[in-house]
Amino acid sequence: MAITPKLDLVVLDCPDALELGRFYGALLGYELEEGADRAWVNLVPPGGGVSKDNPDGRATLAFQRIDDYVAPTWPGGAHPQQFHLDLSVPAIDAAEPRVLELGGRVHEHQPSEEGSFRVYLDPAGHPFCLVQG
């Protein structure tokens, strides 16, 4: 019988896992898993998440420190983005102040002509989008 994998973690490289974990934890309303430090952080979604003790939990985000981390460039450049997160919100303009308060910033390049999404950079420089949903 074939085993079907389950998505466990989406791990983002960064210069400081604790800083980036705190940013996304506060933005998404997730908790930092016990034992979080500057090298590795797992986030726990509301209601529980994936961990060594809960392999059938919900997929979540994790962050790992990379000593020679280089922020991705987007939309092009020497270190192109490999992937990004889309975060659904009822209203982008209402959600944006929280992103900025937590240390995110609006990216200068905004490709959505109709305004259905807006591109931001997290504190480590990863692009992510708020998507009107």
UniProtKB/TrEMBL annotation:
Per the database record, which ranges form the VOC domain?
Answer: 6-133
PROSITE patterns, sorted = VOC (PS51819)
- Which Pfam families would you find in this protein's record? Glyoxalase_6
Alphabetized InterPro entries for the sequence: Glyas_Bleomycin-R_OHBP_Dase (IPR029068), Glyoxalase_6 (IPR041581), VOC_core (IPR037523)
Output this protein's name: VOC family protein
Task: List the source organism.
Answer: Arsenicicoccus cauae
- Which lineage is the organism of this entry classified under, starting from the top rank? Bacteria, Bacillati, Actinomycetota, Actinomycetes, Micrococcales
